[in-house]
Batch of 2 targets.
Target 1
Amino acid sequence: MEVVENITKTTLQEIEKVLNTRTIIGEPLTVDGRTVIPVISIAFGFGAGGGSGRGEGQRKGEGEGGGTGGGAWIRPVAVIISDKEGVRVEPLSGHLGRPRETG
Protein backbone atom coordinates (compact mmCIF):
# COMPACT_ATOMS: atom_id res chain seq x y z
CA MET A 1 0.00 0.00 0.00
CA GLU A 2 1.61 3.18 -1.24
CA VAL A 3 0.08 5.50 1.39
CA VAL A 4 1.52 3.49 4.29
CA GLU A 5 4.88 3.18 2.54
CA ASN A 6 5.08 6.96 2.08
CA ILE A 7 4.03 7.67 5.68
CA THR A 8 6.54 5.14 7.02
CA LYS A 9 9.36 6.45 4.84
CA THR A 10 8.74 10.06 5.85
CA THR A 11 8.49 9.21 9.55
CA LEU A 12 11.71 7.17 9.51
CA GLN A 13 13.54 9.98 7.69
CA GLU A 14 12.50 12.41 10.43
CA ILE A 15 13.54 9.98 13.18
CA GLU A 16 16.91 9.53 11.46
CA LYS A 17 17.48 13.31 11.64
CA VAL A 18 17.06 13.19 15.43
CA LEU A 19 19.12 10.06 16.13
CA ASN A 20 22.74 10.96 15.58
CA THR A 21 25.93 11.20 17.57
CA ARG A 22 25.22 14.78 18.66
CA THR A 23 21.94 13.63 20.19
CA ILE A 24 23.58 10.98 22.38
CA ILE A 25 26.77 12.90 23.21
CA GLY A 26 25.79 16.55 23.59
CA GLU A 27 27.65 19.73 22.81
CA PRO A 28 30.65 20.30 25.10
CA LEU A 29 30.35 23.20 27.56
CA THR A 30 33.33 24.87 29.20
CA VAL A 31 32.73 26.13 32.74
CA ASP A 32 35.45 27.36 35.12
CA GLY A 33 38.23 25.50 33.26
CA ARG A 34 36.24 22.26 33.05
CA THR A 35 34.74 20.81 29.91
CA VAL A 36 31.40 19.14 30.55
CA ILE A 37 29.80 16.88 27.93
CA PRO A 38 26.26 15.58 28.52
CA VAL A 39 25.42 11.95 27.72
CA ILE A 40 21.80 11.17 26.90
CA SER A 41 19.78 7.94 26.60
CA ILE A 42 17.16 7.81 23.86
CA ALA A 43 14.52 5.16 23.18
CA PHE A 44 11.69 5.20 20.72
CA GLY A 45 8.92 3.03 19.39
CA PHE A 46 7.26 3.20 16.02
CA GLY A 47 4.40 1.47 14.29
CA ALA A 48 2.56 1.71 10.99
CA GLY A 49 -0.57 0.14 9.63
CA GLY A 50 -2.69 0.09 6.54
CA GLY A 51 -5.80 -1.23 4.94
CA SER A 52 -7.60 -1.75 1.69
CA GLY A 53 -10.94 -3.09 0.59
CA ARG A 54 -13.99 -3.07 -1.57
CA GLY A 55 -17.41 -2.07 -0.34
CA GLU A 56 -20.32 -4.46 -0.50
CA GLY A 57 -24.04 -3.80 -0.32
CA GLN A 58 -24.94 -0.12 0.08
CA ARG A 59 -21.30 1.00 0.16
CA LYS A 60 -19.70 0.25 -3.16
CA GLY A 61 -16.25 1.33 -4.18
CA GLU A 62 -12.64 1.01 -3.30
CA GLY A 63 -11.13 1.82 0.07
CA GLU A 64 -7.72 2.65 1.40
CA GLY A 65 -6.30 3.53 4.78
CA GLY A 66 -3.08 4.23 6.57
CA GLY A 67 -1.68 5.23 9.88
CA THR A 68 1.51 5.70 11.81
CA GLY A 69 2.39 6.39 15.41
CA GLY A 70 5.39 6.63 17.63
CA GLY A 71 6.78 7.78 20.90
CA ALA A 72 10.16 8.78 22.27
CA TRP A 73 11.86 8.83 25.63
CA ILE A 74 14.88 11.05 26.27
CA ARG A 75 16.78 11.17 29.55
CA PRO A 76 20.15 12.59 30.59
CA VAL A 77 22.21 9.76 32.13
CA ALA A 78 25.69 11.13 32.77
CA VAL A 79 28.21 13.86 32.13
CA ILE A 80 31.79 13.51 30.98
CA ILE A 81 34.03 15.96 32.80
CA SER A 82 37.49 16.89 31.59
CA ASP A 83 39.69 19.13 33.75
CA LYS A 84 43.27 19.43 34.95
CA GLU A 85 42.80 16.26 37.04
CA GLY A 86 41.84 14.13 34.03
CA VAL A 87 38.67 12.81 32.45
CA ARG A 88 35.86 11.10 34.33
CA VAL A 89 32.27 10.04 33.79
CA GLU A 90 29.75 11.07 36.44
CA PRO A 91 26.39 9.25 36.31
CA LEU A 92 23.37 11.40 37.09
CA SER A 93 21.34 10.54 40.16
CA GLY A 94 18.05 8.72 39.64
CA HIS A 95 18.80 7.29 36.19
CA LEU A 96 16.07 4.76 35.35
CA GLY A 97 14.60 5.22 38.80
CA ARG A 98 17.65 3.90 40.65
CA PRO A 99 19.34 6.30 43.08
CA ARG A 100 23.04 6.78 42.63
CA GLU A 101 25.17 5.07 45.23
CA THR A 102 27.42 7.34 47.23
CA GLY A 103 30.57 6.08 48.76
Target 2
Amino acid sequence: MTYAIYHIPGVKIGVTNNIKHRVEDQQGYNEDEYEILEMSDDIDYISKRELYLQERHGYRVDRQLYKDLFNNNFIELNNMNINVTEMTSTFPCPVNKLKGQLMDNIGMSWQTPFGDVYISTGSIKWIMDNVKSSQYTSNRCYVYNKSFARWFDNNSTVSKDKNCNTQCDDCGDELFDCIRAWANERGLYDKGDPKTQYIKLMEETGEIGRAILKNDTEQIIDGIGDAVVVLTNLAELCGVPIEECIQEAYNVISKRTGKMINGTFVKDNQ
Protein backbone atom coordinates (compact mmCIF):
# COMPACT_ATOMS: atom_id res chain seq x y z
CA MET A 1 0.00 0.00 0.00
CA THR A 2 1.30 3.47 -0.88
CA TYR A 3 0.95 6.33 1.60
CA ALA A 4 1.06 10.02 0.71
CA ILE A 5 1.94 13.03 2.83
CA TYR A 6 -0.26 15.88 1.64
CA HIS A 7 -0.05 19.59 2.36
CA ILE A 8 -2.97 22.01 2.37
CA PRO A 9 -1.14 25.37 2.60
CA GLY A 10 -2.08 27.29 5.70
CA VAL A 11 -4.25 24.46 6.99
CA LYS A 12 -2.44 21.20 7.72
CA ILE A 13 -0.09 18.40 6.74
CA GLY A 14 -1.50 14.87 6.87
CA VAL A 15 -1.12 11.31 5.65
CA THR A 16 -3.52 9.16 3.67
CA ASN A 17 -3.54 6.07 1.50
CA ASN A 18 -6.31 7.51 -0.71
CA ILE A 19 -5.56 11.13 -1.51
CA LYS A 20 -8.67 11.83 -3.60
CA HIS A 21 -11.11 10.36 -1.10
CA ARG A 22 -9.40 11.86 1.95
CA VAL A 23 -8.60 15.37 0.75
CA GLU A 24 -11.06 16.02 -2.07
CA ASP A 25 -14.17 13.98 -1.26
CA GLN A 26 -14.05 14.17 2.54
CA GLN A 27 -12.34 17.50 3.19
CA GLY A 28 -13.65 19.33 0.14
CA TYR A 29 -10.43 20.65 -1.40
CA ASN A 30 -9.77 20.86 -5.13
CA GLU A 31 -6.71 19.33 -6.75
CA ASP A 32 -5.05 22.74 -7.11
CA GLU A 33 -5.52 23.52 -3.42
CA TYR A 34 -3.12 20.92 -2.03
CA GLU A 35 0.21 19.32 -2.85
CA ILE A 36 1.76 15.91 -2.26
CA LEU A 37 5.03 16.25 -0.38
CA GLU A 38 6.16 12.64 -0.28
CA MET A 39 4.99 9.11 -1.04
CA SER A 40 6.22 5.80 0.35
CA ASP A 41 5.20 2.18 0.88
CA ASP A 42 6.96 2.22 4.27
CA ILE A 43 4.35 3.17 6.87
CA ASP A 44 6.98 3.50 9.61
CA TYR A 45 8.95 6.04 7.55
CA ILE A 46 5.90 7.97 6.39
CA SER A 47 4.51 8.16 9.95
CA LYS A 48 7.69 9.70 11.35
CA ARG A 49 8.15 11.92 8.32
CA GLU A 50 4.67 13.39 8.73
CA LEU A 51 5.47 14.63 12.25
CA TYR A 52 8.78 16.06 11.09
CA LEU A 53 7.17 18.00 8.26
CA GLN A 54 4.33 19.23 10.47
CA GLU A 55 6.85 20.69 12.89
CA ARG A 56 9.07 22.07 10.12
CA HIS A 57 6.16 23.90 8.45
CA GLY A 58 4.79 25.21 11.75
CA TYR A 59 1.60 23.15 11.98
CA ARG A 60 0.16 21.41 15.01
CA VAL A 61 2.11 18.19 15.42
CA ASP A 62 -0.02 15.06 15.78
CA ARG A 63 0.29 13.34 19.14
CA GLN A 64 0.25 9.86 17.65
CA LEU A 65 2.03 8.31 14.70
CA TYR A 66 -0.12 7.63 11.65
CA LYS A 67 0.73 3.94 11.82
CA ASP A 68 -0.80 3.75 15.28
CA LEU A 69 -4.12 5.22 14.22
CA PHE A 70 -7.03 2.98 13.31
CA ASN A 71 -7.96 3.70 9.73
CA ASN A 72 -11.16 1.69 9.40
CA ASN A 73 -14.57 2.98 10.34
CA PHE A 74 -14.70 1.24 13.69
CA ILE A 75 -12.12 2.13 16.30
CA GLU A 76 -11.85 -0.42 19.09
CA LEU A 77 -11.20 1.34 22.37
CA ASN A 78 -10.98 -1.41 24.98
CA ASN A 79 -14.64 -2.43 25.01
CA MET A 80 -15.89 0.46 22.84
CA ASN A 81 -16.50 0.53 19.08
CA ILE A 82 -16.70 4.11 17.84
CA ASN A 83 -18.43 4.40 14.49
CA VAL A 84 -16.85 7.22 12.47
CA THR A 85 -18.73 8.65 9.51
CA GLU A 86 -18.12 11.82 7.55
CA MET A 87 -20.33 13.86 9.89
CA THR A 88 -20.25 12.14 13.29
CA SER A 89 -18.43 9.91 15.75
CA THR A 90 -20.96 7.63 17.42
CA PHE A 91 -20.40 5.92 20.77
CA PRO A 92 -22.11 2.57 21.48
CA CYS A 93 -23.58 3.52 24.85
CA PRO A 94 -26.17 5.90 26.29
CA VAL A 95 -25.11 9.37 27.39
CA ASN A 96 -25.34 8.53 31.09
CA LYS A 97 -22.69 5.82 30.70
CA LEU A 98 -20.43 7.63 28.25
CA LYS A 99 -18.12 9.48 30.65
CA GLY A 100 -17.00 6.30 32.38
CA GLN A 101 -16.29 4.63 29.04
CA LEU A 102 -14.26 7.63 27.89
CA MET A 103 -12.27 7.79 31.13
CA ASP A 104 -11.31 4.15 30.61
CA ASN A 105 -9.88 5.02 27.19
CA ILE A 106 -7.90 8.20 27.79
CA GLY A 107 -5.16 8.54 25.19
CA MET A 108 -6.92 6.76 22.33
CA SER A 109 -7.37 8.63 19.04
CA TRP A 110 -9.07 8.36 15.68
CA GLN A 111 -9.31 10.21 12.39
CA THR A 112 -12.21 12.32 11.18
CA PRO A 113 -12.50 14.15 7.84
CA PHE A 114 -11.75 17.38 9.73
CA GLY A 115 -8.69 16.24 11.65
CA ASP A 116 -7.43 13.79 14.25
CA VAL A 117 -9.20 13.70 17.60
CA TYR A 118 -8.42 11.92 20.83
CA ILE A 119 -9.65 11.27 24.33
CA SER A 120 -8.21 13.37 27.15
CA THR A 121 -9.75 14.80 30.29
CA GLY A 122 -10.22 18.08 28.44
CA SER A 123 -11.86 16.56 25.39
CA ILE A 124 -14.06 14.38 27.61
CA LYS A 125 -15.55 17.55 29.08
CA TRP A 126 -16.19 18.88 25.56
CA ILE A 127 -17.79 15.59 24.51
CA MET A 128 -20.07 15.50 27.54
CA ASP A 129 -21.11 19.13 26.93
CA ASN A 130 -21.92 18.49 23.26
CA VAL A 131 -22.97 14.85 22.97
CA LYS A 132 -26.41 14.05 21.58
CA SER A 133 -28.50 10.92 21.95
CA SER A 134 -29.22 8.99 18.77
CA GLN A 135 -32.68 9.57 17.39
CA TYR A 136 -32.88 5.88 16.48
CA THR A 137 -31.82 4.26 19.75
CA SER A 138 -31.17 5.45 23.30
CA ASN A 139 -28.19 3.08 23.54
CA ARG A 140 -26.06 5.21 21.21
CA CYS A 141 -24.91 8.81 21.25
CA TYR A 142 -22.73 10.97 19.03
CA VAL A 143 -20.78 14.19 18.50
CA TYR A 144 -20.26 16.15 15.30
CA ASN A 145 -16.77 15.62 13.91
CA LYS A 146 -16.28 19.13 12.56
CA SER A 147 -17.04 20.79 15.91
CA PHE A 148 -14.93 18.23 17.77
CA ALA A 149 -11.92 18.75 15.50
CA ARG A 150 -12.26 22.54 15.72
CA TRP A 151 -12.13 22.27 19.51
CA PHE A 152 -8.67 20.71 19.17
CA ASP A 153 -7.62 23.49 16.80
CA ASN A 154 -8.61 26.04 19.44
CA ASN A 155 -6.96 24.08 22.24
CA SER A 156 -3.74 23.04 20.54
CA THR A 157 -1.76 23.02 23.80
CA VAL A 158 -3.88 20.24 25.27
CA SER A 159 -1.71 17.16 25.78
CA LYS A 160 -2.95 13.85 24.56
CA ASP A 161 -0.70 11.71 26.70
CA LYS A 162 -2.14 12.06 30.18
CA ASN A 163 -0.37 9.00 31.57
CA CYS A 164 2.18 11.20 33.31
CA ASN A 165 4.81 9.68 35.52
CA THR A 166 4.07 10.55 39.15
CA GLN A 167 7.44 12.30 39.30
CA CYS A 168 6.72 14.36 36.17
CA ASP A 169 8.40 17.79 36.30
CA ASP A 170 7.13 19.28 33.04
CA CYS A 171 3.34 19.00 33.12
CA GLY A 172 3.04 22.80 33.32
CA ASP A 173 -0.47 24.05 32.69
CA GLU A 174 -1.65 20.46 32.24
CA LEU A 175 -0.77 19.38 35.77
CA PHE A 176 -4.43 18.95 36.73
CA ASP A 177 -4.81 16.54 33.79
CA CYS A 178 -1.83 14.57 35.10
CA ILE A 179 -3.43 14.37 38.55
CA ARG A 180 -6.72 13.16 37.08
CA ALA A 181 -4.99 10.57 34.92
CA TRP A 182 -3.08 9.30 37.95
CA ALA A 183 -6.31 9.05 39.97
CA ASN A 184 -8.25 7.42 37.15
CA GLU A 185 -5.58 4.74 36.64
CA ARG A 186 -5.98 3.80 40.29
CA GLY A 187 -9.77 3.54 40.13
CA LEU A 188 -10.42 6.52 42.35
CA TYR A 189 -13.16 7.91 40.11
CA ASP A 190 -14.86 4.53 39.75
CA LYS A 191 -14.85 3.62 43.44
CA GLY A 192 -14.15 6.91 45.19
CA ASP A 193 -16.62 8.92 47.21
CA PRO A 194 -16.84 12.73 47.63
CA LYS A 195 -17.44 12.38 51.36
CA THR A 196 -14.25 10.36 51.77
CA GLN A 197 -12.29 12.92 49.80
CA TYR A 198 -13.70 15.70 51.96
CA ILE A 199 -12.53 13.94 55.10
CA LYS A 200 -9.11 13.51 53.51
CA LEU A 201 -9.06 17.21 52.68
CA MET A 202 -9.66 18.05 56.34
CA GLU A 203 -6.74 15.81 57.27
CA GLU A 204 -4.48 17.56 54.77
CA THR A 205 -5.44 21.05 55.97
CA GLY A 206 -4.67 19.91 59.50
CA GLU A 207 -1.21 18.90 58.31
CA ILE A 208 -0.75 22.34 56.75
CA GLY A 209 -1.74 24.01 60.01
CA ARG A 210 0.79 21.99 62.01
CA ALA A 211 3.50 22.75 59.44
CA ILE A 212 2.77 26.50 59.66
CA LEU A 213 3.00 26.43 63.45
CA LYS A 214 6.40 24.70 63.16
CA ASN A 215 7.50 27.06 60.35
CA ASP A 216 8.40 23.92 58.38
CA THR A 217 8.55 25.09 54.75
CA GLU A 218 9.07 21.59 53.35
CA GLN A 219 5.99 20.25 55.11
CA ILE A 220 3.98 23.33 54.12
CA ILE A 221 4.76 22.65 50.46
CA ASP A 222 3.94 18.97 50.89
CA GLY A 223 0.67 19.71 52.67
CA ILE A 224 -0.57 22.31 50.22
CA GLY A 225 0.34 20.04 47.30
CA ASP A 226 -1.54 17.12 48.83
CA ALA A 227 -4.55 19.35 49.48
CA VAL A 228 -4.62 20.48 45.83
CA VAL A 229 -4.52 16.86 44.67
CA VAL A 230 -7.43 15.99 46.97
CA LEU A 231 -9.39 19.05 45.81
CA THR A 232 -8.79 18.06 42.17
CA ASN A 233 -10.20 14.59 42.83
CA LEU A 234 -13.06 15.92 44.94
CA ALA A 235 -14.10 18.25 42.13
CA GLU A 236 -13.94 15.44 39.58
CA LEU A 237 -16.04 13.14 41.76
CA CYS A 238 -18.62 15.94 42.03
CA GLY A 239 -18.72 16.21 38.25
CA VAL A 240 -16.94 19.53 37.77
CA PRO A 241 -13.30 20.14 36.74
CA ILE A 242 -11.24 21.97 39.35
CA GLU A 243 -10.26 24.51 36.68
CA GLU A 244 -13.91 25.53 36.42
CA CYS A 245 -14.16 25.91 40.20
CA ILE A 246 -11.04 28.08 40.27
CA GLN A 247 -12.28 30.19 37.37
CA GLU A 248 -15.64 30.76 39.04
CA ALA A 249 -13.93 31.79 42.28
CA TYR A 250 -11.61 34.17 40.46
CA ASN A 251 -14.49 35.71 38.54
CA VAL A 252 -15.96 36.66 41.92
CA ILE A 253 -12.86 37.80 43.81
CA SER A 254 -11.48 39.78 40.88
CA LYS A 255 -14.36 42.23 41.31
CA ARG A 256 -14.08 42.54 45.10
CA THR A 257 -12.86 45.63 46.86
CA GLY A 258 -11.79 45.90 50.47
CA LYS A 259 -8.81 46.41 52.74
CA MET A 260 -6.40 44.53 54.97
CA ILE A 261 -7.35 44.38 58.66
CA ASN A 262 -5.13 42.53 61.14
CA GLY A 263 -3.53 40.46 58.40
CA THR A 264 -6.83 39.53 56.71
CA PHE A 265 -8.42 40.98 53.59
CA VAL A 266 -11.91 42.16 54.52
CA LYS A 267 -14.19 42.81 51.56
CA ASP A 268 -16.36 45.89 51.36
CA ASN A 269 -20.07 45.47 51.97
CA GLN A 270 -21.85 45.37 48.66
